[in-house]
Amino acid sequence: MSTEVAPHRVGVPVNLHVWEDLTFLHWSYPADVVQALLPPGLTVQAYEGRAWVGVTPFRMRDVRVPGLPAVPHLSTFPEVNVRTYTRTPDGTAGIWFFSLECPRLPFIAALRALGLPYRWADIAMATDRPGSRVAYRSARRPLGGRGDTGVGLRAQVEVGPRITAPGELAVALTARWWAFSRRAGRLWRVPAEHEPWPLHEATARVDGDSLLRACGLPAPTGRPMVHFSPGVHVRLGPPRPAG
Question: By its UniProt entry, which InterPro entries does this protein fall under (predicted)?
């Protein structure tokens, strides 16, 4: 089971940044539906017999290599991820990304080379301070003359009070310390370290069916489980073989 505090240190990070004004939107799915979309070597983590898929819109801020300053414009941008929760045969629990939507082409090119499914998209965020309401909008753009038109997310989020003691499921779906990717026929994992998520209650009006369907998932049913966080400071370590 995941823990609120990172179980490891990233002593020599390869990347530093802030995940800011992030909303966790989660829907449950039959476990076999999600398992069919995973690569060899990963097993879906089910909770009470159901798998969970998250859509997480947020802002990446001050993305940089340790020892170097953030680059204006390139280093701060919004992102929208679609993810699920998995483990390897040795029990390592982490995130598998179905897509990562991003507006920065240099960032996309670098991370697609590492096996992460980045897609080019127009993304906008609007935040009412002190964080009582956040609006997200994304629309996928064609890359190399090809693309999924009409794929995107619209979400209006109302932020509620701070959660002082997150439940077991909320921790399991938010506090994840490894991310998996597949490259050159091998499964890789990247360690992450950050402070515990400051989670808030939240409600949302969401239109994200097209984004989930573009990832091979059925359109979700029912309202999502919603949590909001003002953000955390993140240290990412180098990729290493998984399993």
Answer: ADC_dom_sf (IPR023375), DUF2071 (IPR018644)
Lowest mean pLDDT among 37-41, 56-60, 130-134, 205-209: 130-134
Phi (first) and psi of residue 151, to 5 degrees: -100, 125
Mean pLDDT in residue range 174-189? 94
Which of 102, 96, 80 is CA-nearest to residue 188?
Answer: 96
Residue with tokens 């993305």: 63
- What is the pLDDT at residue 131? 66
Altogether, the residues listed in the chain come to a count of 243
Beta strands in the chain (DSSP E): 15-30, 43-44, 50-64, 77-87, 93-102, 118-128, 133-140, 152-162, 178-183, 186-193, 200-207, 225-236, 240-241
* pTM score, whole prediction: 0.95
Tokens of 234: 């993140």
Residue 187 tokens read as: 């499964």
CB atoms within 10 A of CB 18: 20
Report the C-alpha gap between 158 and 173 in whole angstroms: 20
pLDDT range class, residue 146, cuts 50, 70, 90: low
Domains, the chain, ranges and CATH? 15-241 (2.40.400.10)
For residue 1, pLDDT over 60 is answered with no
Nearest to 18 by CA among 238, 239, 171, 229: 229
Q: Which residues are registered as beta bridge partners of 240?
A: 189
Q: Which residue has the tokens 């629990």?
A: 93
3-state secondary structure of 170: helix
Paired strand residues for 154: 137, 207
- 136 pLDDT higher than 90: yes
